[in-house]
Specification:
Layout: E1 4-8, H1 14-17, E2 22-24, E3 28-30, E4 40-44, E5 50-56, E6 61-67, H2 75-91, E7 101-106, E8 115-120, E9 123-128, H3 131-135, H4 137-145, E10 154-157, E11 174-177, E12 184-187, E13 190-193, H5 209-218, E14 223-227, H6 233-240, E15 245-250, H7 253-266, E16 273-277, H8 280-284, E17 293-296, H9 308-325, E18 330-336, H10 343-357, E19 361-367, E20 386-392
Parallel strand pairs: 1-4, 9-10, 14-15, 14-17, 15-16, 17-18
Antiparallel strand pairs: 1-3, 2-6, 4-5, 5-6, 7-8, 8-9, 10-11, 12-13, 18-20, 19-20
Length: about 400
């Protein structure tokens, strides 16, 4: 079947010639009337020069470019891209006996826009963020289990909440290949349970691995509060780092149950840890001068640009409360995972919170996402995780 062609308006190819992988609806001059969501299409300039090939979808982004070369998007294509992604993770030394959890594919950062793949041991969890990747899921799964040396036996597809609802694709979360074996994975020698069946995202936030390691170096002798703990990643790193006590807080009782299970996996019977299923602001109001290391890692406050203003107010209020409550000489790890908010906006919100508290505050580290969440140099929008480590007098 012939690949359909989308023609751009005059001059609208400039960003694509700089290898930005998105075609916006306003750039399109003409498209076939029988085109459907998920179709593989060619994109040409107004004078019919080949630009790229990618997945079509309805919305502000109409094509996500998969290749700027005139190539077939088939099993061989996915095998080559996944192999390149896996080689990078080997270069990063993420595949070791004491670490078998990592992100294998990070969308545009691995030149596969619309696709996320996280690996936990011999299970790969696949998320499609575009109809095209949804339709390619079986081909992707075949390429994953065929990946040399990766040892992937199970591929779980989890896209019920990530695909555009207007596409009416009705994705079902299920195993494409294999089935359940174990949900215990290892990160830097620490074990944790991954709930890819019902948990958030792919079941664990592997993007905080490096920042958790950094926290471990600051934890010795400190009283640690891990807010928005989800499954407790920062908590068990703090315990291994020698914290005096670690308290984990999340509004979800299920998350607290997972946190307790993960702490028990690594530190059975350790009385230093307690966990609370409570609202963040209510809990913070009760903690006067109790903690000298606080982690604020909330869910995304702004998933769309329309929510930026309210999100920045939320970040300011949350951080102001932490500045108010933390002990003198305390260390604050504070994060934003909202892609719509840039690092300057986040830093200004935290600065405003610090000024409100009238505390002396110094920046020790400025944090970002780890190297297995790479940023395509032509697609700066791929930078989403922002963090600051602050010393508070």
């Amino acid at each position: 079947m012939a690949i359909k062609t989308i023609k751009l308006k005059k001059g609208k190819e400039d960003s694509l010639l700089r290898f930005h992988p998105w075609v916006f609806s306003g750039a399109v001059e003409s498209a076939p009337t029988d085109i459907e969501e998920g179709d593989i299409v060619k994109v040409v300039s107004n004078d019919n020069r080949f630009i790229g090939v990618g997945h079509f979808q309805i919305g502000s982004i109409v094509v996500r470019i998969l290749s700027f070369e005139d190539t077939s998007i088939d099993l061989t294509f996915f095998e080559e891209r996944l192999s390149a992604a896996y080689d990078l993770r080997k270069t990063l030394n993420l595949i070791r006996h004491d670490n078998n959890a990592f992100r294998l594919v990070h969308g545009e950062g691995d030149f596969l826009p619309g696709l996320i793949v996280d690996v936990y041991g011999n299970t790969a969890v696949v998320q499609a963020h575009s109809p095209g990747m949804h339709f390619a899921r079986n081909t992707i799964a075949q390429a994953l289990v065929g990946l040399n040396d990766a040892g992937i036996k199970n591929v779980y597809y989890k896209s019920e909440t990530t695909l555009p609802f207007k596409a009416q694709l009705d994705p079902q979360n299920d195993y494409i290949v294999g089935g359940y074996e174990t949900n215990i994975a290892i990160e830097n020698g620490l074990k944790f349970q991954v709930d890819w069946l019902k948990g958030q995202k792919t079941g664990f936030f592997v993007d905080q691995r490096d920042n958790r390691s950094l926290l471990e170096h600051y934890a010795k002798g400190r009283s640690v509060l891990n807010m928005f703990c989800y499954t407790g990643g920062f908590s068990f790193y703090a315990m291994r780092g020698g914290a005096n006590l670690v308290h984990s807080v999340d509004s979800s009782a299920k998350a607290i149950a997972l946190t307790k299970a993960n702490v028990e996996l690594n530190f059975p019977g350790d009385s230093r840890h307690e966990a609370y299923a409570e609202d963040a602001f209510k809990f913070l109001n009760t903690i006067d001068n109790k903690y000298d290391l606080i982690i604020l890692d909330p869910p995304a406050f702004a998933k769309h640009r329309s929510a930026i203003k309210n999100a920045l107010i939320g970040y300011r209020k949350l951080n102001a409360k932490a500045f108010e409550k933390i002990r003198p000489g305390g260390i604050l790890f504070t994060f934003s995972c909202s892609q719509a908010i840039n690092k300057e906006q986040f830093r200004l919100a935290v600065f405003s919170a610090a000024a409100m508290s009238k505390r002396k505050v110094r920046i020790l580290h400025q944090l970002t996402q780890p190297a297995d969440h790479p940023i395509n140099i032509y697609h700066p929008e791929g930078e989403y995780l922002k963090g600051l480590i602050l010393y508070v007098e």
